[in-house]
Amino acid sequence: MAAIIVQGKEVAQNIRAELANEVAELKEQGITPGLTVVLVGDDPASQSYVRGKSKGCEEVGIASELILKDASTTEEELLAIIQQLNENPNVNGILVQLPLPKHISESAVIEAIHPDKDVDGFHPISVGNMVLGNETFLPCTPHGIIELIKRTGTEIAGKHAVVIGRSNIVGKPVSLLLQQENATVTMCHSRTQNLEEFTRKADILVVATGRAHMVGAEHVKPGAVVIDVGVNRIETGKLVGDVKFDEVKDVASFLTPVPGGVGPMTITMLLKNTVVAARKQAGR
Ligand code: NDP
Prior knowledge:
With 284 residues, the chain is an alpha/beta fold. The chain folds into two domains: 84 residues, Rossmann fold, CATH 3.40.50.10860; 123 residues, 3-Layer(aba) Sandwich (Rossmann fold), CATH 3.40.50. The strands form three sheets. The protein has a six-stranded parallel sheet with strand order 1-11-8-7-5-6. The protein has a three-stranded parallel sheet with strand order 3-2-4, sandwiched between helices. The relative contact order is 0.17. NADPH dihydro-nicotinamide-adenine-dinucleotide phosphate binds next to helix 10.
């Protein structure tokens, strides 16, 4: 049977509509959530991500500001900007678009963001709280993946989830969140031997490798929920996922497309974190 294609774009749209209502209510109480995005350099992919974030803010009524700095900006200059944003009460969330130019330490910059304004969820304090299961800002892509799985109506508890990829921004945190949702989790990576043996046992398969089309029908258990996180530009200029969509759609029960699957959820979770930040900072 053909899989149900999980339209992340539609799910994201529904969540954004809920957020727009919440923002309108906050505005009536004199609170306008504010997000500031800092972009250093002129990487085209980063520019496009930043545009998507500004557009998302506009859609739900969040006040967004974009600070553009050229690639020669020093670490000291960037840290000074973050300090000002930390102190600015109109700024509820701060996001520094990664990657940064090589001469700037990403960890120094992430650690400079006040944890209360860390809407990307990358600060070590946010990560530590996530590991401990404390309330915190969850990183946007993993959080979006969990929401997407839930909105398919899939019960995560008790399922065997297999995650391919162990990066700090996707694989590692999504594995942890799945475990906190009471799945039994297996993490695979580039040194995993006989990958197929693991993936074929997955009720939920999350693929985040950045390797175009590496997962085919042979990797997937019939009826599995397959979440394709990968975004890869192939020679033709087309964007494709890590999963062979045309093959896997005939095996899986649910499958996310690329584009239009996980991507729109990532920005939506950022908007959600910003609204939560505004609420908390206003003591609501
Ligand atoms: P990384 O390159 O940081 O991590 C890739 C992971 O995949 C690593 O853990 C690596 O293993 C593993 N891996 C690579 N090749 C294989 C293989 N052949 N078999 C098994 N495991 C393998 O990537 P990210 O986690 O940052 O991103 C993954 C993908 O998700 C990318 O395509 C990225 O563009 C996309 N992405 C999409 C987002 C969205 O919003 N849609 C947001 C963030 C990322 P090892 O650790 O051993 O090297």
